[in-house]
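re: the backbone from monday

yeah here it is again, tokenized this time
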């Protein structure tokens, strides 16, 4: 079983269990755990109570427990569970301390007193566990099978299950103005018997109304009664008289306000404990559908419309939850890939999408390992109008499960980027690159022997070794920037840097040799280091003239990585679809521009010819024969 990239923490508390999904151990500290536990597990107490939290973690495959009380203990917890998807955490001996203080306080025993907050439940499934063996499958599997290891009863808790009322009165001081809020819709828990109870549904449909009212009026809400047939709430500020009580009218589902004291004597608080990340996320969904790249400042400005000042952590969590609601969770997206492959082949005939799974036998659910996609339009465009020069690179994905995005990018006749293929793999190594080049060669090949096919790489993580095995007919070209980065570690200095780039970029052997000789005079070991690298792989003068490409760095594919940067944090389905749309828009835009050209020579090449023509004024021609001339620089006067 491989090392888990993201964990699910099951928090056991007073007979209930809730889940903290997709926890990345690399960026998770004790304060993050404490915040998630208070948000997820302790949602049944009024907002003005603080608690002394004692946490213990179950040690896997034993009956022992370890205390969780510091960053070090959290780190130890993840180390013990590095091969386990689920971590069981227990809350013990909770001492409840009434207070109006919202900030976290540390006592003399280094235990933490944490302000209670209220949040809604999470419903992200746990992905399939690791298994050994490889299998190529393309059939869709049941979404429910990915969640067999989860007890569905663990999440029969609706965190916002609070008393809520409606009133027929239209007085300006009542709550009727808050009944048309878009969050009043309810999605009942799929495993709960309460979803068929109309009275329960009515109660839940009004929860958002009272919650919004408390947040916008800026007061702490204390729910005294929270039952199916009655609800009572009051302001939690000391001395404030605001109070409301409601109950159904007879046997109907209509609630009537029986007692209501509308006056507040407390001071409005814009940092209301009711305004948790779940509530903020609901408010952001409609905004982020139109503006998915909404910044933290934008979120803060949006919340100010509701009279709320969220913290940076609340903004981060709310954005993450809103995007999950819009795009779907990361773990659920993997189960939808086979269906996406069917649709892609149906609507993009001639394209390729390969999904690689780990699956030891047919009785075990498959675990996603790799994905390769390339479209017919990319293959046709490359073979018809691009130079046989391709750059390859990998960049890290920022989603919950990590991974590497491998890409192949060519240059078209106008020297613009032309994406060819991409893959998502678990690690960047020789094995992953070999898998990538196997399908790349299958889809784009076989390459004719007369084409000067050239691959640009950074010589790192087995990339060049992989294509030398899978595509032996391709010539190798190494990125000079990566060569120099390694070179300067051993041989620093401005002069060595200057002469290195002169040697790399020189168009003729004489200029290259002059630069190398200067490097040799400064440091003979530096000269030996460069001399051991074949010149045809990094020195411009030694490149094949047939390919008509003088690039000495892989910067153009770094530009591609920046171009797709906004997609690297999305789930795998949104990533694949986002890249497809970007490629489609880019190719169509190129087509529209090409239709406006009046010459078969591209604008980039025309610009180069004009620059060369301007420089040629400094040259003189001496005829040697009918078709041969000698070109010489005009000596300065």
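seq for it, each position gets an aa:
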């Amino acid at each position: 079983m491989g090392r888990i990239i993201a964990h699910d923490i099951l928090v056991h508390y007073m007979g209930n269990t809730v889940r903290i999904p997709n926890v990345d151990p690399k960026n998770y500290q004790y304060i993050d755990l404490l915040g998630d536990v208070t948000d997820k597990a302790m949602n049944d107490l009024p907002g003005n109570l603080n608690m002394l939290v004692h946490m213990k973690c179950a040690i896997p495959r034993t009956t022992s427990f370890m205390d969780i009380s510091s960053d070090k203990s959290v780190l130890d917890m993840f180390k013990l569970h590095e091969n386990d998807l689920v971590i069981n955490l227990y809350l013990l001996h909770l001492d409840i301390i009434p207070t109006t203080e919202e900030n976290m306080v540390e006592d003399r025993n280094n235990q933490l007193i944490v302000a209670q907050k209220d949040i809604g439940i999470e419903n992200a499934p746990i992905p399939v566990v690791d298994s050994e063996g490889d299998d190529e499958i393309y059939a869709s599997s049941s979404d429910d099978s990915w969640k067999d290891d989860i007890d569905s009863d663990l999440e029969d808790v609706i965190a916002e299950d609070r008393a809520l009322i409606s009133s027929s009165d239209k007085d300006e001081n009542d709550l009727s103005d808050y009944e048309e809020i878009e969050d009043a819709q309810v999605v009942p828990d799929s495993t709960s018997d309460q979803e068929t109870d109309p009275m329960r549904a009515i109660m839940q449909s009004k929860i958002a109304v009272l919650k919004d009212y408390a947040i916008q009026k800026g007061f702490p809400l204390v729910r005294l009664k929270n039952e199916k047939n009655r609800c009572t709430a009051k302001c939690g500020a000391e001395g404030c008289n605001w109070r409301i009580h409601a109950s159904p009218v007879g046997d109907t589902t209509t609630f009537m306000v029986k007692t209501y004291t509308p006056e507040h004597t407390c001071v409005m608080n814009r940092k209301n404990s009711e305004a948790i990340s779940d509530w903020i996320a609901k408010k952001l969904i409609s905004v982020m559908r139109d503006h998915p790249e909404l910044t933290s400042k934008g979120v803060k400005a949006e919340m100010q419309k509701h009279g709320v000042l969220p913290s940076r952590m609340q903004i981060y969590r709310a954005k993450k939850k809103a995007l999950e609601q819009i795009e779907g969770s990361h773990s659920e997206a993997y189960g939808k890939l086979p269906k996406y492959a069917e649709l892609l082949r149906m609507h993009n005939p001639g394209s390729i999408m390969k999904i690689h799974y780990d699956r030891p036998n047919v009785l075990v659910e498959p675990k996603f390992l790799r994905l390769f996609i390339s479209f017919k339009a990319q293959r046709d465009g490359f073979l018809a109008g691009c130079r046989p020069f391709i750059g390859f690179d990998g960049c890290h994905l920022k989603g919950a499960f990590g991974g590497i995005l491998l890409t192949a990018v060519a240059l078209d006749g106008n020297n613009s980027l032309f994406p060819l293929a991409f893959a998502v793999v678990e690690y960047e190594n020789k094995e992953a690159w070999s898998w990538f080049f196997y399908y790349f060669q299958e889809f784009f090949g076989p390459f004719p022997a007369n084409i000067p096919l050239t691959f640009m790489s950074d010589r790192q993580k087995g990339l060049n070794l992989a294509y030398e095995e899978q595509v032996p007919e391709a010539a190798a070209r190494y990125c000079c920037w990566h060569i120099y980065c390694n070179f300067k570690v051993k041989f620093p200095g401005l002069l060595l840097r200057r002469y290195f780039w002169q040697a790399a970029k020189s168009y003729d052997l004489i200029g290259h040799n002059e630069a190398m000789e200067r490097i040799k005079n400064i440091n003979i070991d530096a000269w030996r280091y460069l001399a051991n690298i074949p010149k045809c792989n990094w020195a411009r003068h030694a490149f094949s003239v047939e390919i008509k490409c003088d690039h000495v760095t892989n910067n153009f594919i770094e530009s591609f990585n920046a171009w797709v940067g906004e997609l690297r944090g999305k789930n795998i389905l949104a990533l694949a679809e986002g890249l497809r749309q970007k490629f489609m828009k880019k190719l169509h835009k190129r087509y529209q521009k090409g239709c406006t050209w009046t010459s078969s020579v591209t604008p980039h090449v025309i610009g180069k010819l004009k620059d060369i023509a301007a420089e040629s004024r400094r040259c003189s021609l001496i005829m040697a024969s009918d078709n041969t001339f000698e070109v010489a620089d005009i000596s300065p006067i």
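Residues 572-594 form the longest helix (23 residues). Confidence is low (pLDDT under 50) at residues 95-196.
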